[in-house]
Amino acid sequence: MLKVHLTRTLMRSLLAFAHDQYPNEMLVLLRGKRSGESLLVHQVVFAPFMLGGRSSSTFNPYQVPIDSSIVGTAHSHPSGVTRPSVEDLLHPYGSVMMIVGYPFREKEDVAIYDSKGRPLEWEVIEDEE
């Protein structure tokens, strides 16, 4: 089973961005490196023409340049629920889906799933120098 590693800076940035966008949802693409059953997520990418509103966020995948380092998405749930919605499960992009829930303060406000909505094991690691 895939284990996801997030850099501390990325984790803090996602929590802060979700907080700044509240009460709207935020959505970003995640860039990472896979090695066997380990995935290091280290950067976000903003897709062209991304839209975020009070109840959803979206982007047109046909507007995203081909980039094999994009491993999934991160988006917020202003409701605080960190489980994927039916809409989330119907539109996966990449192999991981990170959900950041209100109040956007700490690791417990984040959950990571595979593209089928199954929870993944994950941890925050220190940034590489």
How would you characterize the overall build of this protein?
It is built from 2 helices and 9 strands. The chain has 129 residues and is mainly beta. The protein has one domain (3-54, 65-123): 3-Layer(aba) Sandwich (Cytidine Deaminase, domain 2), CATH 3.40.140. Strands 8-7-6-2-3-1-9 form a 7-stranded mixed β-sheet, covered by helices on one side. A two-stranded antiparallel ribbon has the order 4-5. The longest helix is centred in the first third of the chain and has 14 residues, at 8-21.
Percentage of residues assigned to helices: 10-25%
| Tertiary shape | globular
Number of helices: 2
CATH topology: Cytidine Deaminase, domain 2
The CATH first-level class comes to Alpha Beta
Radius of gyration: 13 Å
Uncertain stretches of 5 or more adjacent residues:
none
CATH superfamily: Cytidine Deaminase, domain 2
Strand-residue fraction? 35-45%
Largest sheet: 7 strands, mixed
Average predicted confidence as pLDDT: 92
Distance between the termini: 28 Å
- For the largest sheet, list the strands in their spatial order: 8-7-6-2-3-1-9
The CATH architecture comes to 3-Layer(aba) Sandwich
Q: Helix-strand pattern, N to C?
A: EHEEEEEHEEE
Total number of distinct structural domains? 1
Q: How many E-type strands?
A: 9
Given helix and strand content, the structural type is mainly beta
